[in-house]
Amino acid sequence: MNRIELNTPLGRSLLLLGGEMKDIEPLLPASGLFVITDLNVRSLYGNIFPPGMVFTVEPGEQSKTLARSEELCKRLLEAGADRSSFILGFGGGVICDLAGLTASIYMRGVRHGFVSTSLLSQVDASTGGKTAVNLGDYKNIIGTFKQPEFVLCDHRMLSTLPEEELQSGLGELIKHAVIRDRNLFFDISASMEKVYERDPVILGDLIRRAVRIKASIVRRDPLESGPRRVLNFGHTFGHVLETYYRIPHGVAVTKGMLLAAELSVWTGEMPHSEMKMLEEVIEKTGMLPDLELPDNIIGMMSHDKKAEAGSLNMILLRSVGKAVVRRLPLNEIAAFVSFYRDGKEKNK
Q: In what order do the strands lie in the sheet with 307-308?
């Protein structure tokens, strides 16, 4: 097991990578434990939940709402939860967000931790202290920053993931490599077959390296006021596609990464050869959806939480392994979208 300590002004978080349930027993309270999970995870792992009251929600994005968090707060209150209680989010990315937000607002904040069961949450969603729910069709508009006391990533749990969920997490894994670690990018490409076989040793090594990237960035910028923005690579386009087409988060982000890479070439930040290399690796994942851009994509992007005064902080690439933040006017992004659409039409 690898232990990573993430210390920020928001608190300390202990990341247990490759651990088991027994490793968090000393970190849990003797009483006052409340588990938040979803139906799928409970059916798979309910028999190993630690002793406590279990609250179960429907799996998927439909549970990632303020109304669901409010309902959980009511249930906590009815169950006698107080400020000494502890919330354990046991599940994937949606549960990490929902449980984390609920823990941050119930009685102005109670202790919490995560058992992360999906590749997406082990690589990304469970680490860093960001919590958020959606507002209608807009992703992650309502949220807080609150560090979990611990995150347990048992890589053996990934063996139960459906292929669609594995792909979604693979998108976030590639993202971490693309923004910061060129060698990790090549190692992911070389290990693709083993990833799809759910090899826990290979996955464990790739996850550890990705989490170290995220932890190092979060330490420098826990509130996402500067350097942490690079972790949003692919997300500005990706969130629009995810909402519009109702596709898994990581798949949408993967398409968003390719769009952001094309934008990087279009603005002169990155050579075309680097974009082609990224495209070739993403093709190997089997998730390169040929999606038309929504007609109102600029309007949808203008409601992104990264939008300010008619412009957006876009994460672009200098090369695979080096991301930069650039503030672009929305009309410049609109010009790129027109250029992209024209290119697609010519290639039909």
A: 307-308, 311-319, 322-329
Confidence of residue 345 (pLDDT cuts 50, 70, 90): low
CATH number listed for the domain at residues 164-193+233-346: 1.20.1090.10
pLDDT reported for residue 122: 97
Contact 172, 287 (CB under 8 A): no
- Class (C level, CATH) for 2-160: alpha beta
Element (H, E) at 42: helix 39-45
- For the chain, what are the domain ranges? 2-160, 164-193+233-346
Kindly report whether the global pTM for this prediction surpasses the value 0.85.
yes
- 346 pLDDT above the threshold of 70: no
Token pair, residue 36, equals 């938040």
The angle at the Cα of 92, spanning 84 to 2, to the nearest 5 degrees, equals 80
What is the DSSP pairing of strand 322-329 with strand 138-145? unpaired
Integer Cα distance of 109 and 220 in angstroms: 24
